[in-house]
Every structure is written in structure tokens, then in C-alpha cells.
Recover the amino acids of this structure.
């Protein structure tokens, strides 16, 4: 799950990262590394600390935490699929820093700790410095998703966890009443979160604001989001060509973490 704000005491209500991530993590154990992905040249990564950079670059600060807001140290953060770019490593505060050109679409991977699932996230820089926070669940919560949705997760495919927020503020409540449709319409879902796990009887988001899709193949997907009175815009996602939609990149064997703001 992805965050672009201060850590939240409500992080424990996220359901899909652990269960989806376990499936993805197991599928990736035999892999020597992520598959190639276009667009890796858009960003220079760095370890936290002073580095040389162009005056036009903006700073992106990311923090990775697990439930309870405990920082995840030693997680490798890379430009996905581009081995020529140096990776950053989260410090004891769970933080890494990189610089990137403004208005660039970044795709990052988060790997390197066996107890956490491999994940990817997309983020578009603006003309000023930005920050985000990623919530990663430990793999110990493994079997719960299959039981909740009544379906078997294909370990070799990709999965999406998307959350609908009411503001660019982690403390702001999530949004109920959002429906989602994915294009191309493949895989399984949407599944809407009820408290910790999805509830197959739900047809829109509840107060938890979580939406999941599973068993997707690698590729680009547009997710259309509808609310009776709000418009949903990308937060941790790329913009789509359609209003009220976001563009997500899915990779087999990974969880794609995304967030939108519906105002």
C-alpha cells in the first residue's frame, strides 16, 4: 500500500498487501531479478546524503513502514528493470532519498527482505520536492486472502492494491462509495475492503477505502473510479487520458501499490 504523507495510526486496516504480496513473493523466488521495463532512464537514484545533481532536479523522499509504523530498514529501492541505475537502501528510519527530473514518471521496486513481499509503485514528480510513504505488510498474514475472496491467487501473476483517500493527508479518512473498473478487463476483481479483508458482497468501497484486483498479466491498465459527488485523481499512480481514471503498471510476480484522492 502506498502513502504520500505522515505515518498513520490506522495502517493496520490494510488487507491486500500481505496476502497478495506473499503470493507474489513466492512466485519471484526463482527469478534472478525483475523483468525489463521501459522508462528506467527517467530518474537517478541515490543513497541518502549529498550527491551531485542538476539544479532542475527535484528531491523525492520515500519512507517504508510496516503495520504499527515500524520502519523497514535494509529494503532495496531501485528504478524498476534498469540495472544501470544505482539502488537506494532504506535507513534505520525506513527512509531513502533520490533526485529526479520534474514531471517525470517513475517506477520503483521495493525488494530485498525475505519477510516482506516484492512490490512496485509508480509516482509522477512535480516541479517541487515530493514525499511518499509505502506501507508493507509482513508475509505472515499469508492465507487470508484466498479464503476471503473464495478464489485461488495465481502465484505467477500480478496484483493491485488501490486505496481511495479523501485528501492528500494520511490522517484524512478514506472514501466510501467508490466503484472501480479495470481496462483491459482481465483477472479477478474488483474486491472491496471491509475492515482488514475484502468482502465479496460489497459493490463499492466502504470506510476502509481499499480496492483489489488479482491474477493480472504484465502490462498497462486503466482503472476508472466513480463516486456520486467526488472526482478521483492520481496520488501514487500515473494519470490516465480519461478523467476519473488512473494508469497502473502491473508486473507478474509483484504487487502494484496505488492511491488516489477523491475530492
Amino acid at each position: 500500500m502506498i502513502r504520500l504523507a505522515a505515518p498513520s495510526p490506522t495502517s493496520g486496516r490494510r488487507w491486500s498487501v500481505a496476502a497478495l504480496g506473499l503470493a507474489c513473493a513466492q512466485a519471484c523466488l526463482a527469478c534472478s531479478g525483475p523483468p525489463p521495463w521501459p522508462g528506467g532512464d527517467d530518474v537517478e537514484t541515490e543513497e541518502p546524503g549529498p550527491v551531485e545533481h542538476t539544479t532542475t532536479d527535484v528531491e523525492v523522499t520515500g519512507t517504508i513502514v510496516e503495520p504499527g509504523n515500524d520502519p523497514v530498514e535494509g529494503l532495496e529501492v531501485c528504478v524498476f528493470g534498469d540495472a544501470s541505475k544505482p539502488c537506494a537502501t532504506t535507513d534505520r528510519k525506513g527512509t531513502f532519498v533520490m533526485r529526479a527530473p520534474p514531471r517525470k514518471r517513475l517506477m520503483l521496486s521495493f525488494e530485498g527482505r525475505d519477510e516482506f513481499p516484492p512490490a512496485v509503485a509508480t509516482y509522477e514528480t512535480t516541479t517541487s520536492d515530493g514525499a511518499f510513504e509505502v506501507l508493507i505488510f509482513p508475509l505472515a498474514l499469508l492465507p487470508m486472502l484466498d479464503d476471503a475472496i473464495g478464489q485461488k491467487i495465481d502465484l505467477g501473476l500480478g496484483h493491485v492494491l488501490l486505496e481511495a483517500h479523501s485528501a492528500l493527508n494520511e490522517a484524512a479518512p478514506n472514501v466510501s462509495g467508490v466503484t472501480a473498473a479495470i481496462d483491459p478487463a482481465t483477472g479477478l476483481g474488483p474486491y472491496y475492503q471491509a475492515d482488514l479483508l475484502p468482502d465479496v458482497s460489497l459493490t463499492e468501497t466502504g470506510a476502509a477505502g481499499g480496492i483489489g484486483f488479482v491474477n493480472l498479466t504484465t502490462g498497462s491498465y486503466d482503472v476508472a473510479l466513480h463516486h456520486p459527488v467526488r472526482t478521483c485523481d492520481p496520488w501514487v499512480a500515473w494519470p490516465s487520458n480519461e478523467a476519473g481514471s488512473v494508469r497502473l503498471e502491473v508486473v507478474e510476480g509483484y504487487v502494484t501499490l496505488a492511491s488516489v484522492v477523491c475530492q
The first strand starts at residue 2 and ends at 3. The longest helix spans residues 16-28. Residues 2-262 form a domain with the Immunoglobulin-like fold (CATH 2.60.40.1120).
